[in-house]
Amino acid sequence: MMAAPQAKMTANQERLAALSLPEGGTWAMAARGAALDRLRAMGLPERRDEYWKFTRPDSLVQAEAPKAALFDNGDEAEMFGGVDRLRIVFVDGVFDAEASDDLALEGVRIERLAEAGQSDIHWAKDTYGVLEERGQSPVARPLAALNTALATDGILIHVTAATSKPINLIYIHKSDASDAILHHLIKLDTDTEVTVLENGPAAARFNKVMEVEVGDGATFHHVRTQGRDHERRAATHIFARLGTKSAFKSFTMTANGVMTRNECVIELTGDDATAHVAGAAMGDGDFHHDDTVFITHDAERCESRQVFKKVLRNGATGVFQGKILVKAGAQKTDGYQISQALLLEDDSQFLAKPELEIYADDVACSHGSTTGAIDEDALYYLRARGVPKAIATDLLTLAFLAEAVEEISDEALRGEINSRLEGWLERRRG
Amino acid sequence: MLEIKNLHVDLEEEDKTILKGVNLTVEAGKVHAIMGPNGSGKSTLSYVLSGRDGYTVTEGNATLEGVDLLEMEPEERAAAGLFLAFQYPVEIPGVGNMTFLRTAMNAQRKARGEDEISAADFLKLVREKAKTLKIDADMLKRPVNVGFSGGEKKRNEILQMAMLEPKMCILDETDSGLDVDAMKLVSEGVNALRDAGRGFLVITHYQRLLDHIKPDVVHIMSDGRIIKTGGPDLALEVEKNGYADILSEVA
């Protein structure tokens, strides 16, 4: 008798079977183990998954990270260099103590996950992976569960009072084959405020989760830039839960990057909370950039705002999947969503899937999505005043992105982003 | 200053001839007016001279101080000293009026091999010019023409003209959409720029603008040609009798 032929495992199944957890203390092992179980139950993203219809997950899930050449930033000034901040540096996902400031700042307790995870009891046990797990329904986010299970390090920030300066997570990419997984946790106590900055390409492939618990009356500011290494790949998730009268404001700027999937999952669970998520992306050629946002209104009188702008050239692809879910009882919800693409050359494409799902009867929700070329009348007007075509095009490009950049409330940070955008466009002109 | 010889122009998309042999010379220090009924080709002439896409010159030429205009990009024509005050100034959300003005000024200076204007000098100049046109600080800060009334848009055009100090100014129906007060303000702005070294071509339907900006020469345009040229009296004649008389007289 011959044995029945065994079903061949797919590459994803093989990868899942081969995963093993890093060592750690009691709480961390429990959280990681649960995340691995979740991941195995949901499976890694497949090309046929509806949620991955516009973005091929292959390069993000395969066992080995595709190589990514390093980008030469030339003499470009350090990002956020003009802002007084606490710097925390990771090189290819590995904490660099030499390059980092002391992890000490008034009003905040800052620790590394790699260290906190070794202890048996820690405040993080009630938070680590908790928001990620909540975010797995109604849509599975397997790469986030993978992150919770396998993250090698990350920063735990517990904000207990107003902070004097931003905390800047700096991700340096030095090895063309690096595969980094970081998991950050930020907990804001009642009526506190903190600004977290992130910048840099991080690694050839970067999987990052940031869980943010925003307490009642607290405010979280987030400004991120994702580096210019064109071949790098990134899958990032932000999971945030907002208490009563709290505010969450996040802005991301992406230029270059062959594969970026930025997911943002926000739950408004306290009344009168505000969530603003914005993104400005510019890309060329095989640039692929995906913003996937899911905002759940589960309390009264909350406001949410999504503003995403993409400038696409020479066959670049932009994706936007944005959803506002208003639960029954979330009356007086004010939801707004806009996603727009500016196509500067032929063959670029923008794929948008805006969604509203509303179960309350007294809400104001609107969404819009547009794709267009540069305004020829505006271009002619600028040129007729003596502005050369290339500069006029850049001015109009910046103007197009402005609505997203203006979501940054801090003037100095907004200035940093604007001057960087201007600099990149100028350099591109040569 | 501006010399147009036998200019023939087709609309690119419709295979239609708009200008059928325009001849016109505007001397430095003079104000020429072009009047004519709708569809006679007045605005097309201004667009072709300033370099808008969508038109094909099939015959003839146009020069500014002897330099061929039609071979140049729109921005090169501006740097060479040509300025078109638009009939419909374009709104540009996201670009501040001041940024726009300064970028334009410096681009022109750079093209001419001159130094850029300093931020302080620019600010001083723009405040001074804006004041005479009753353009307040808020209008300067706002995005270009966004939310401006018709009169504000036209005043903004004249402000740009005053800042850029062109050699040859073309005003395309600058009076359209203006009430009497605004027309006076705009005309004063234009008159302040009249200078022995500068030429003007004022395109208008109606005589009333020419009460404020007194022309030296008046041309009547019809069906793509200039059919009659005369002194300021010609504009009064149009005002009194309409275009029909002149058209039949020529035909």
Description:
Chain B: It comes from Roseovarius marisflavi. The complex is a heterodimer of chains A (430) and B (251). By secondary structure, chain A is of the alpha/beta class. Chain A has one domain (32-374). Chain A has helices spanning 11-18, 26-42, 58-61, 113-116, 130-134, 142-150, 376-384, 389-405, 411-429; strands at residues 86-91, 94-95, 104-105, 108-112, 155-159, 167-172, 179-188, 193-199, 205-214, 219-225, 233-242, 247-255, 259-268, 274-284, 288-297, 303-313, 317-326, 334-343, 349-358, 364-372. In chain A, the strands form two sheets. Chain A has a ten-stranded mixed sheet, with helices on one face. Chain A starts with 10 loop residues before the first helix and ends with a helix. Chain B is an alpha/beta fold and 251 residues long. Chain B has a single domain (2-250), classed as Rossmann fold. In chain B, helix 2 (74-80) packs across helix 3 (97-111). The longest helix of chain B has 15 residues, at 97-111. The radius of gyration of chain B is 18 Å and the shape is globular. Chain A binds chain B through residues 375-378, 380-389, 391-392, 395-396, 398-403, and chain B through 50-53, 73-75, 77-79, 84, 86, 89-95, 99-100, 103-105, 107-108, 111, 143, 160, 164.
List keywords for this structure.
heterodimer; A: 430 residues; alpha/beta; ten-stranded mixed beta sheet; B: 251 residues; six-stranded mixed beta sheet; four-stranded antiparallel beta sheet; 12 strands; globular; Fe-S cluster assembly protein SufD (chain A); SUF_FeS_clus_asmbl_SufD (chain A); SUF_FeS_clus_asmbl_SufBD_sf (chain A)
List strands and helices in order, with pairings.
The complex is a heterodimer of chains A (430) and B (251).
Chain A lengths: L10 H8 L7 H17 L15 H4 L24 E6 L2 E2 L8 E2 L2 E5 H4 L13 H5 L7 H9 L4 E5 L7 E6 L6 E10 L4 E7 L5 E10 L4 E7 L7 E10 L4 E9 L3 E10 L5 E11 L3 E10 L5 E11 L3 E10 L7 E10 L5 E10 L5 E9 L3 H9 L4 H17 L5 H19 L1
Parallel strand pairs in A: 1-6, 5-7, 6-8, 7-9, 8-10, 9-11, 10-12, 11-13, 12-14, 13-15, 14-16, 15-17, 16-18, 17-19, 18-20
Antiparallel strand pairs in A: 1-2, 3-4, 4-5
Helix pairs in contact in A: 2-6, 7-8, 8-9
Chain B lengths: L1 E10 L4 E11 L4 E5 L6 H9 L4 E10 L2 E2 L5 H7 L1 E4 L6 E5 H15 L7 H14 L4 H5 L1 E2 L5 H15 L3 E5 L7 H14 L5 E6 L3 H5 L4 E6 L2 E6 L2 H9 L2 H7 L1
Parallel strand pairs in B: 3-10, 3-11, 6-9, 9-10
Antiparallel strand pairs in B: 1-2, 1-4, 4-5, 7-8, 11-12
